[in-house]
Amino acid sequence: MGTNRRDFMKSAGVGVVGAGAAMAWGGTTAFGASPEGVPKEPVKIGVMAAQSGVMAVPGVAALTACRIWAEQVNKSGGILGRTVELKVEEETGAKETVEKFKKLTLQEKVEVVVGLMSTGNGQAVGQEAEALKQLWLSWDATTQKGVVEGQPVANYSFRSVDNELEAIAGAILTAKLMPSVRKVAGINNDYSYGRDCWESYCRVLKMYNPNVSFEDSIYLKLGETEFSAAIDALAAKKPDLIMSSFWSGDTTIFLKQAAAKKLFQNIKGCFTTGGGVHDTLKKEFTPEGLILGYNSMYFRWTDNWPMLNDFVKVYFEKTKTYPVYECDHAWFTLQAYKA
User: Fold this and answer.
1) Which of 59, 96, 163, 197 could cross-link 50 (Cys pair, CB 3.0–4.6 Å)?
2) More confident residue, 163 or 331
3) The predicted structure's pLDDT at residue 289
4) 18 Cβ partners below 8 Å, 6+ apart?
5) Distance between CA 186 and CA 219 in Å, rounded?
6) pLDDT at 154
7) Which bin fits 309, alpha (ψ -120 to 50), beta or left (φ > 0)?
């Protein structure tokens, strides 16, 4: 009896999905007979992407990257001669997301599930993946503490990236580019990612700028869209700089409301993960000189990487926008699976 890719991946045990996974841009290749022992039916891949609410901007972008990847792979002959078929479900609340994950696994019988951004959803789905022995390649959906505290044993769940690295980089850039900063205030989402990023940012910035002091961060529920009271509270702290790890549509909404109150007129800003919605940030409300962070990929990072340049070109041709970093997470988890 032949071994399919799902069985092979599961029998391989714990592995690593990394940003170094290769990207392949090949020409069109005719589909031929699958190698001996390889199933002939399509490779079903489940994709769980946010498509509404504050997570929609990076979620839809990542889903677009998945579809571009599938098109390219199928044009190049598929996976071991098998066409790729994406089965898409929307990431919503934790309970509903778990049910959709179970649907992909038990009804659609996908070989792997990719996706998810919310840490809460990742905690819930991660446990389900282990119970069902379903391979799940997460785009984000976990923090370092979340892995240790909520999923100490993970044989079927793989995370694509360290979710605090952008806060560390933001702190280093703050120290380098804004050495005169002495007082920092924060506004972050009230869950592990927001708290971890604030803690990481403070610790690293203090290493490079020992003279800096920190006000207590304001924490708001993910999905909050009314920031008037928080903006007034931040202004009252009179900081030199405001740090935020907002990563989705709340970034844009906050900056619009902050501009109306002229919050950043004399205050600098470091939005460690705001690059996730860069196409929604317009000059009329985005502070000049804002440090804007990206989690592992910036679309103009270099001109010396043909694969990145080609992807950005295809993505722009399809959407008339530039890809955000979540596209990178979506792309390389799929490419790692294919490899």
Assistant:
1) 59
2) 331
3) 93
4) 160, 332, 336
5) 8
6) 80
7) alpha
The residue count of the chain comes to 339
What pTM did the predictor assign?
Answer: 0.78
pLDDT bin (cut points 50, 70, 90) of residue 245 is very high
Task: Report helix, strand or coil for 118.
Answer: coil
Tokens of 66: 């998945």
Dihedral (C-alpha) 263, 264, 268, 270: value to the nearest 10 degrees? 80
Q: Which two tokens stand for residue 30?
A: 């005719």
Distances (CA, A) of 43 to 8, 128, 153, 231, 310: 14, 22, 27, 49, 25
Dihedrals phi, psi of 246, to nearest 5 degrees = -55, 135
Question: Which two three-digit tokens encode residue 225?
Answer: 């869209």
CA atoms within 13 A on the CB side of 190: 7
**Domains of the chain (ranges, CATH numbers):** 5-162+303-338 (3.40.50.2300), 165-292 (3.40.50.2300)
Query: How many of the other CB atoms lie within 10 Å of CB of 155?
Result: 14
Residue 10: per-residue pLDDT: 42
The number of CA neighbours under 13 Å toward the Cβ of 312 is 15
Largest alpha-carbon pair distance within the chain? 70
Q: What is the pLDDT of residues 24-59, one digit of tens each?
A: 444 545 455 566 777 889 999 999 999 998 889 889
Per-residue pLDDT reduced to its tens digit, 182-232: 999 999 999 888 999 999 999 999 999 999 999 999 999 988 999 999 999
DSSP letter string, 48-101: EE--SGGGHHHHHHHHHHHHHHHHHHHHTT-BTTBPEEEEEEE--SHHHHHHHH
